Amino acid sequence: MTPINPLFDSFPERRGTCSAKWDGMAEGVIPMQVADMDFRSPQCVIDALKARADHGMFGYSFAGDAFFEAACGWQARVHGCTGNKEEILPAAGVITGLQWAMKALTPEGGCVILLPSYPPFMSVPENLSKPLHPVTMPNQNGRWELPLEALERELSREDVNAFILCNPHNPTGRIWTREELCSMLSLCKKHGVTVYSDEIHGDIILPGEEFVSVLSLPEELAGEAVVLNAPSKTFNLPGLQTSCMIVRNPAQRKKIAELMGRNHVPGPDIMGFAAATAAYTGGEEWLREMVRYVAGNLDVMADFFARELPEISFIRPQATYLAWLDCRKTGLSCKELHEKFLSAGVSLGVGTNFGETAGEGFMRLTAACPRALLTEALRRMKKALHG
Fold first, then answer.
1. Where are the domains of the chain?
2. C-alpha torsion sign, points 95, 97, 100, 106
3. What CATH architecture does domain 46-282 belong to?
4. In sequence order, what are the residues at sequence separation of 6 or more whose Cβ sits closer than 8 angstroms to the Cβ of residue 222?
5. pLDDT (tens digit, 9 = 90+) per residue, 289-306?
6. Answer CATH for 30-41+284-386 from 3.40.50.720, 3.90.1150.10, 3.50.50.100, 3.30.420.40
7. Which of 171, 251, 309, 314 has the fewest CB atoms within 10 Å distance of its CB?
8. What is the mean pLDDT of residues 84-94?
């Protein structure tokens, strides 16, 4: 029996609130394409925002000691990674941080990514006119594998100087082992390639699994990596635009900070700092319950597909609240799948957005929602394919 939790079984009406997820959809369509939870954030966050609003003063602000202590404390307590506030550069979102870090440290040269890939990992290098060198992950024996030989082939290219690592991986939900991470970073060190590790989903680790942060690797491997994380996916705070770039190398950190300063790049705002500080200080119990609830949703999905819709399957993610659905047995293209599902009242992430070839026949579903909503979406998916 999957667990029930009143914290997550319902949520306030989101239509009419300028929700990018809900207001961007036609009336009656269930949106499951955006990595945005349909759960209320922890009460500690709501209380902190209310307190800040009650203060009534919203002048210029900066990241105070409480924010840095909360962020460092979370990394130490939850992930066993030690650090200090001097290593953290606050940013208005992980992708914003990634783009400015790459612009500062590796403005030219090629960039390697793993496919399927979160779409901004393709667009950020393209925005900087950095040639993309994608490596497709094979799906073997019910597991998304790391193709080390193919990866080294691309990393060894003369023009390549950047590697975007998604840890855990979006959209497959794969957690990289310590051995795999050491292998990837060793190859990057060997070939003089800077590693940008997006760890935004690193807190959402499903029961029985273990996350390894790049920050926990030996200093000779991790010392020049740029690690990006945020409380936004963990506690459903993406609208508050608060993230951290963790840059241990002082010279790299100075380059990034100076470039952002010269370009007047805005950082997180007063409410974002308040929310992040509260979440990192008091949100652990909420996170544990949320992960248990999402794991129950994944159980419901696996059972539904096995019984009702066997032409769709997914490798159970080790992390994230995302399911990378293999729909290839339907014989339909992503375009056809999207149209059919949308006509039945459900919107999923289109696989080809994650790689034109690597994503064909796949769709991404966000499973962080009340179970009744998920069940209705699954029912509509079956109707779309079977009438």
1. 30-41+284-386, 46-282
2. negative
3. 3-Layer(aba) Sandwich (3.40)
4. 185, 214, 215, 216, 248
5. 999 999 999 999 999 999
6. 3.90.1150.10
7. 251
8. 96
Two structure tokens written together for 270:
């007063």
- Mean pLDDT of all residues in 214-230: 96
- CA dist 315 and 337 (Å) reads 19
Q: How far is CA 217 from the centre of its chain?
A: 21
> In terms of C-beta density within 10 A (0-12 exposed, 13-18 middle, 19 or more buried), how is residue 160 classed?
buried
Judge if pTM exceeds 0.90. yes
Residue with tokens 């000779």: 220
Q: What does the radius of gyration of the chain's CA atoms come to, in whole angstroms?
A: 21
pLDDT band per the 50, 70, 90 thresholds, residue 83: confident
Cβ proximity of 201 and 320 under 8 Å: yes
